[in-house]
Amino acid sequence: MKSLRARLLLLLSVAVTLAALVQAVAVFRNAMNEADAVFDYHLQQLALSLASGDMGLPGFGPNVSAGNDVDYVVQVWAPDGKRIYVSRPRSELPSQAVLGYTNVQVGGEQWRVYSMQAGGRTIQVGQSTATRQALALGFALRSIWPMAVIAPLLLLAVGVAFFSASQDIVIDAYRTDVLPAAERSAGAAVLVLGYRLAMIVSGGLALWLATDVTGWRGIYALMAGLMLVLTLVTLWAPRPPLHAKPPRTLREAVVEPWQEFFSRKGAWALLLAIVFYKLGDAFAGALSTTFLIRGVGFSPADVGLMNKSMGLVATIVGALLGGALQARLGLWRALLLFGVLQGASNLAYWVLAISPQSLALMGLAIGVENFTGGMGTAAFVALLSALCDVRFSATQFALLSALSAVGRVYVGPATGYLVDALGWPNFYLFTVVAAVPGVVLIYWLRDIIEARDVQNPGG
What we know:
- By secondary structure, this protein is of the alpha+beta class.
- The chain has 2 domains: 16-178, no CATH class; 182-454, MFS general substrate transporter like domains (Growth Hormone, Chain: A), CATH 1.20.1250.20.
- The protein has helices at 4-52, 129-178, 184-212, 215-231, 250-262, 267-276, 279-286, 288-295, 300-329, 331-344, 347-354, 359-386, 393-404, 406-422, 424-434, 436-444, 446-454; strands at 73-77, 83-86, 100-106, 109-118, 121-128.
- Strands 2-1-5-4-3 form a 5-stranded antiparallel β-sheet.
- A hairpin with a 5-residue loop joins strand 1 (73-77) and strand 2 (83-86).
- Helix 9 packs antiparallel against helix 10 (331-344).
């Protein structure tokens, strides 16, 4: 376990195991507490049933049969204190207790009893604490058994998520390290193209195959086989130049990359630009489907068809064209131009909101928004690559891309309130305004962005 990756995987495994154990303990304790409350409830209900004569006792109705194998013990006292009924006459049982719930010690054994009066008599229903604990233990163990059954599936899901996230980080770091500045735009465009094609294969196509052809087991095997074949591509992939030794500690892998980034001029402004650059798109996209279906009145089928066809094609074409234009314009000019275009494209939804329902107009709005969004995404990915020091490319790209998602994550809850307050037309005008801060920050950071675009960071 000398490598950092092995230690991280071990740490993750331990963390998942501890989390599962904590959850199991919490479920177990909760089940024990619930069982205790249930047993108390049963004591009371049994006493009430006896008092009403439903279960029968001498003088109350038909006799109840109770032997030593019964969990609850019933005793009845006459008004003068003489015990007139006991379900276990040969056992050492609690004496008459106060009304309500109480704990009684009898011959070294603890009892939980419930007493009440009915018809001048005192009815007591008791249960041995040892019996309660044994029954509660069985109930609690049955409660956590499903967790034990799904534990292998849980570990498998965690493993898939861990290696999937690790693969994303490695691919981003590899692209950042292997591509020179002149090819970052093309690399970003190809990234968007590959991502969208993968969404088609693993989404709609996989769902159709699983439903009508292979079944779920077959489609998972097919996707795993596809991943296995594609991993062979790495055998022929060019190796990036080695600028520094791989990190050996968590400090070298996590802390030092942040220290290096914040030692730069304008680091905080760059972080703000990353958060705000796609903010207008985040606002517009959060409720776009809701707007098209509920706001304008299109059918879900029409919206889905347009999004999967026009939207997908427009995004791919926009990303490829954006990559080509960025190579000519340079990173800063491309970011500025595409930022203006992707903000202004939200006006297409504003036009859709104030116009009569038109399928062609919806297709145009979706196409324009996705086309400019694809251009902006290509330039934005290239910006993240340019900001990475190749000594820390994996960590810095992962942290910067995670930071870029902050806007998309936190605008979602706010969009519903904004639509209620502003209405759909004014909401989409607001999304245009929301795109302005990101463009202004990009304009202000010209010198820093252009310097990062032409140099080999860390080289």
